[in-house]
Specification:
Strand content: over 45%
Mean pLDDT: 84
Number of strands: 16
Largest sheet: 8 strands, antiparallel, barrel
Shape: elongated
Number of domains: 2
Number of helices: 1
Order of helices and strands: EEEEEEEEHEEEEEEEE
Distance between the termini: 28 Å
Strand order of the largest sheet: 1-2-3-4-5-6-7-8
Length: 164
């Protein structure tokens, strides 16, 4: 299953396949296989590359506090729908991530990285359910990154572009 994790304010895309005591995860293009055990509520043990890792998780107001080897991080895990809702509710100062609203195919990229664009300017065209949808920038700025290519299939919530 795909998730968006916000760890100490930094957003990461995760894909996790939990097969009981074996977890396979992809984080930032890197693949990990871990052996895992739930020691007690909020306390987990992982074996990765013959390294023993103990992780404690404590719920907080909107996220979790995760402790590993004495280092604490604030972690918020969002499924794709929650991530899309959260992105839509954020103000438009700083970076804005454009994400796929549904599964589909990228038909055309309308701008290049580094291009200056206005609010509501089309960034790319995505086809979903036999309809073409123009994905527009919610703010004026510069296209920092185009994360997909033409003819690429995308999943709901997948990163398409970043406007700064």
């Amino acid at each position: 299953m795909k998730y968006t994790a916000i760890i100490d304010g930094q957003t990461l895309e995760l894909e996790i396949d939990n097969g009981g005591s074996r977890i396979e995860a992809s984080v930032g293009g890197r693949h990990y296989v871990l052996e895992s055990r739930n020691v007690e509520p909020g306390l987990y043990w992982f074996n990765w590359n013959n390294r023993s890792i103990e992780l404690s998780v404590t719920p907080s107001v909107d996220a979790y506090v995760v402790s590993v080897n004495g280092h604490q991080s604030s972690v918020e895990i969002l499924d794709t729908r929650s991530a899309l809702r959260k992105t839509a509710q954020l103000g438009h100062s700083g970076e804005v991530e454009l994400r796929a609203p549904m599964p589909g195919k990228i038909v055309k990229i309308l701008v290049q990285e580094g291009a200056a664009i206005e609010a509501n300017h089309g960034v790319l065209v995505m086809e979903a359910m036999k309809m073409q949808n123009e994905i527009k920038s919610p703010k004026a700025g510069v296209v920092k990154r185009i994360a997909v290519a033409e003819a690429a299939a995308v999943n709901s919530g997948e990163l398409l572009a970043i406007v700064e």
